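re: ur question from yesterday

yeah so i grabbed the chain u mentioned. its 180 aa long if i counted rite. heres the sequnce exactly as i have it in my notes:
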Amino acid sequence: MTYVVRRAESGDWRLLRDLRLEALRDSPSAFGTTYADAAGLAEEVWRQQAEQEATSPASATFIAATQDGRWVGMVGCAPLPDVAGTACIHGVYVAPAHRGGSAGLAARLMDAGIRWTRDNTDASWLTLGVHEDNHRAQAFYRRIGFTDTGKVVPYRLDPAKKLYIMGYEDFRPGLPVGLG
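ran it thru and got these structure tokens back, copy pasting raw so excuse formatting
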């Protein structure tokens, strides 16, 4: 199957909302918000989020769509405001029917987010958090170049669970890596 991977545009707010809600229904522990909280957001909030992700010089959301225009994947990238010099990948989702396979859709989305962050921010370190029970995602992130940092934080929706923080070793070749 052929996919288009591109940065979300401000007019895409409905599609972005629908995909995020689908992701929260499909993989509730993979994200830092609940379906109920996201579904309860006003239209204006979704519009503002889409505008921010489409136009911000520091953060972006990339989507993957099929040839017929159906959105089937997304990835976000943004600076971490509390960790100087660090950006993060977040909101990674690929619809179940489009996972795996020869198209490498998840890798293409991640590549778009990584390249955009490298080209558009001054972050020296790129990270992501992955739920302790999401072994498939952990393995995927390792395959594309993320490594364990040794940092573990509580999962916001269930502090008894953990998020493992992984770092992208090849983000800024030649610079020392680590969390600020």
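noticed a couple things. Strands lie at 3-7, 60-66, 71-79, 86-94, 125-131, 146-155, 158-168. also The longest strand covers residues 158-168.
anyway ttyl
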